[in-house]
Every structure is written in C-alpha cells, then in structure tokens.
Amino acid sequence: MVRLAHRGAYDVALIFSQDQDLSEAADEVRTIAREQRRWIKLACAFPASPASSNRRGIDKTDWIALDRALYDACLDPRDYRPKQRER
User: Fold this and answer.
1) Which residues contact 54 (CB under 8 A, 6 or more apart)?
2) Which of 47, 55, 59, 83 is a good FRET partner for 22, with 20 to 30 A between their CA atoms?
3) Burial of residue 83, with CB atoms counted within 10 A of its CB: 0-12 exposed, 13-18 middle, 19 or more buried
4) For the whole model, what pTM was predicted?
C-alpha cells in the first residue's frame, strides 16, 4: 500500500482487514499524499454482524461494515507469500 502510494498507482485503497497495525501504514500514505499534493482515500472493509465482537475498522481510515457473505466473497484466496524452497 505504501509503495504503490509512492508510485501514484491509486487514489483509493480499500483494505480488507481490521488489523490496527495498519494504522501506521495509513499515516504514511497520508504523508505521501500531502508531499505529492494529491488526494488519497483510505477505507477499511470488515465483516459486521450482531454476533461480531469487533465493530471497528482500522484507525485513520473510513470504515465500511459489510455482511459476512459479501466480505468473504471479496477476499482474494491467493497466497502471495514467496514459496519456500524444498531442501
């Protein structure tokens, strides 16, 4: 998210997570936007239901509460981590 903001690759980032550690990245993206004199919108989508205990998005982003079925349908199942070499 930060690298692509530096490159000017997006104007809107929709993050599918509630991980508060990402609020630091949101701060960095806002700094990049100011330095580049451009607008970047950051939003956090998360599953919400009456049974959910966490009804908050990532700090310093707009929050978009989605029902669980829609949230799950939007998730990318691909594992982007580098493959480990077999020894």
Assistant:
1) 18, 46
2) 83
3) exposed
4) 0.79
